[in-house]
TrEMBL record:
This is Chloride channel protein. The chain crosses the membrane at residues 55-79, 140-162, 214-230, 242-266, 315-337, 357-376, 428-447. One of its GO terms (cellular component) is plasma membrane. Belongs to the chloride channel (TC 2.A.49) family. It comes from the Eukaryota. It is a multi-pass membrane protein.
């Protein structure tokens, strides 16, 4: 009897930091499906089981949507409260944020809606006075201390309980979706700690957002629910289909953009995205958005704080500043990636990397010290973006809306004409200029630290400043030829908030190189199809400009920095090399480690496993002929030999191992042989030694291979692994091939 006829645990699984074999996973799922279909005809119970199996995918999507929407709502509410806690406390209920506190007050007037007796700043609470230098310094000190406390708690929790909860998480998610295994990256502890520390990190005032980390949180939810269904928990390929849909749900709740989330998953993070996954992503994003809408964390019936609606059309002449914002976004993206990668490389290669707690607390302290004096850097990123996107209505109390009103103005509230800027707007402009410089510098040092992080405010600040400049130019020079046709005196021509949105899109596009999904996310934010063209112009321009300085976006750059084996579909390979130039062993290296089909003993197999660290071994007819039979994985072989020694009677070190259907002729009274045909892959992917590397790279990309064997006339010559392909590509681009660390 072949002991492998009974399944034993862990066969067909993968080691940590290894790449999955997509072809094998696909074929295993097909076999499982075929078995379920044939059994469903046998009885009613089997038919019900097959229906449950078919519906399990939709159930998982429902659960992901519900949990990620709930977590996003909780995070939004907690961030709102803790950000305000740095400045003061609500006396009637300490768990209320500033806004909620004044909502519930009966003494709040419309003009002073931010001031109510129930909300007190720390200085007022401690000393009884809110005016004067002493009160300002006390508020300043407490703001910095709260920021230090929040950042210290965030980095300590990450360091002690879940080291994988750091950063935005998107580079690693892209790598995992391409077929790489990082155990624990999407685990329960990571989910819990990422959710808590995301609130702490954003509340500490660090220059980061919660949009990127919410994708990681949603993927953790996806992984959690995969473990409930064997269809997904036992098949790494199927699991990645669920994670692709979870990423869509994450963006759906981060930006309130369900369709944008699906497109983000398709364009930016997913490696394998069949049509079935598209529908399921759509469903998961819908449920997540619906759940967040039910929680209503901002009290405005919107999914995000910075949702806006504009009422003014844009004009052709405005395309010029929109395109200039695109150029700025592209230049900022290229500069940010280079500076951030240089800083992260320095962190990795110097002593700085050994003190993550000190680094995070140091950056948080410096950020808080510099941020407090400026009202635009003091508030949270979401609040800042919300104010920058906002259109100035008649009821706005923001400094950015301090325009000089004409005494005889009688217009509907949503159609206020362009007016000259008042002193508040000019004060806001120089504060925004300082905020822009501050954000540009601080974000470089913040992204990639040992805490959750994200990107977006720089472009919104630059855009709002350009918007105000265009608006005032149009008002004061409406007789210029470019304004004459569309901007008459007393008309509402320019919307500065729209420029802020276009700027945010341009900078996000320059840093991440997203295009289609970015535009859709942005127009879902505004609820207006009218502004698609400005957004498209800015997104495409920023991508072109940024691509001129380097093809990789921030996520691909971090993947390269960490040495993950990610074969980017967008990379082009145009060099004229052959499979023989890349395959191993090379001329100077020892011959390829192989197994024979029926001539090796258990002892020899164990010695081969112990003496090498390869992921698998080709099986040949004999070492003389080297005719290829198949390929066996290292993990499967190790488990099979170990299990055979425990379960199969008489297996000793001298027992013969064979991979053929029938045992070979044996001498008299031998120890029982060990048959391992079940774990042998009889159809490994092979190429000839004269196959162009361009074709080999394409095969690895499109089929998701781990390795490929090189033959000539059926004789085995060598092997090419994914790591070999990536190292060869790096070498061809004059990069360090040793930077690819994993296989």
């Amino acid at each position: 009897m072949d002991f492998l006829d009974e399944p034993f645990p862990d066969v067909g699984t993968y080691e940590d930091f290894h790449t999955i074999d997509w072809l094998r996973e696909k074929s295993r799922d097909t076999d499982r499906h075929r078995k379920i279909t044939s059994k469903s005809k046998e009885s009613m119970w089997e038919l019900i089981k097959s229906l449950l199996d078919a519906w399990s995918g939709w159930v998982v999507m429902l659960l992901i949507g519900l949990l990620s929407g709930t977590l996003a709502g909780v995070i939004d509410l907690a961030v709102d409260w803790m950000t305000d806690l740095k400045e003061g406390v609500c006396l009637s209920a300490f768990w209320y944020s500033h806004e909620q506190c004044c909502w519930t007050s009966n003494q709040t007037t419309f003009d002073d809606r931010d001031k109510c007796p129930e909300w007190q700043k720390w200085a007022e609470l401690m000393t009884g006075t809110s005016e004067g230098a002493g009160a300002y310094l006390l508020n300043y000190l407490l703001y910095v201390l709260w920021a230090l406390l929040f950042s210290f708690l965030a980095v300590s929790l990450v360091r002690v309980f879940a080291p994988y909860a750091c950063g935005s998480g998107i580079p690693e998610i892209k790598t995992i979706l391409s077929g790489f295994i990082i155990r624990g990256y999407l685990g329960k502890w990571t989910l819990l700690i990422k959710t808590v520390t995301l609130v702490l990190a954003v509340s500490s005032g660090l220059s980061l957002g919660k949009e990127g980390p919410l994708v990681h949180v949603a993927c953790c939810c996806g992984n959690l629910f995969c473990s409930l269904f064997s269809k997904y928990s036992k098949n790494e390929g199927k699991r990645r289909e669920v994670l692709s849909a979870a990423a869509a749900a994450g963006v759906s709740v981060a930006f309130g953009a369900p369709i944008g989330g699906v497109l983000f998953s398709l364009e930016e993070v997913s490696y394998y995205f069949p049509l079935k996954t598209l529908w399921r992503s759509f469903f998961a994003a819908l449920v997540a958005a619906f759940t967040l809408r039910s929680i209503n964390p901002f009290g405005n019936s919107r999914l995000v704080l910075f949702y806006v609606e504009y009422h003014t059309p844009w004009y052709m002449a405005e395309l010029v500043p929109f395109i200039l914002l695109g150029v700025f976004g592209g230049l900022w993206g290229a500069l940010f990636i280079r500076a951030n990668i240089a800083w992260c490389r320095r962190r990795k290669t110097t002593r700085l990397g050994r003190y993550p707690v000190l680094e995070v607390v140091g950056v948080a302290g410096v950020t808080a010290l510099l941020a407090f004096p400026n009202p635009y850097t003091r508030r949270s990123t979401s609040e800042l973006i919300s104010e920058l996107f906002n259109d100035c209505g008649a009821l706005e109390s923001s400094q950015l809306c301090d325009y000089v009103n004409s005494p005889n103005m009688s217009r509907p509230l949503d159609d206020i004409p362009d007016r000259p800027a008042g002193p508040g707007v000019y004060t806001a402009l120089w504060q925004l200029a300082l905020a822009l410089v501050f954000k540009v510098v601080v974000t470089v040092f913040t992204f990639g630290m040992k805490i959750p992080s994200g990107l977006m405010a720089v472009g919104a600040i630059a855009g709002r400043m350009v918007g105000i400049a265009v608006e005032q130019t149009a008002y004061h020079h409406h007789d210029w030829i470019i304004f004459r046709n569309w901007c008459r005196p007393g008309a509402d021509c320019v919307t500065p908030g729209l420029y802020a949105m276009v700027g945010a899109a341009a900078c996000l596009g320059g840093v991440t190189r997203m295009t289609v999904s970015l535009v859709v996310i942005m127009f879902e934010l505004t609820g207006g199809l009218e502004y698609i063209v400005p957004l498209m112009a800015a997104a495409v321009t920023s991508k072109w400009v940024a691509d001129a300085f380097g093809k990789e976006g921030i996520y691909e750059s971090h993947i390269q920095l960490n040495g993950y084996p990610y074969l980017d579909v967008r990379d082009e390979f145009s060099h004229r090399t052959l499979a023989a130039d890349v395959m191993r062993p090379r001329r100077s290296e020892p011959p390829l480690a192989v197994l024979t089909q029926d001539a090796d003993s258990v002892e020899e197999v164990e010695a081969l496993i112990k003496g090498t660290d390869y992921n698998g071994f080709p099986v040949v007819v004999s070492r003389e002929s080297e005719r290829l039979i198949g390929f066996v994985g290292r993990r499967d072989l190790t488990l099979a030999v170990k299990t055979a020694r425990q379960k199969q009677e008489g297996v000793v070190s001298s027992s013969l191992v064979f991979f053929t259907e029938d045992p070979p002729p044996l001498p008299d009274d031998p120890p029982p042989p060990l048959k391992l045909r079940r774990i042998l892959n009889l159809s490994p992917f092979t190429v000839t030694d004269h196959t162009p590397m361009e074709t080999v790279v394409d095969i690895f990309r499109k089929l998701g291979l781990r390795q490929c064997l090189v033959t000539r006339s059926g004789r085995l010559l060598g092997i090419i692994t994914k790591k070999d392909v990536l190292r060869h590509m790096a070498q061809m681009m004059d990069q360090d091939p040793e930077s690819i660390m994993f296989n």
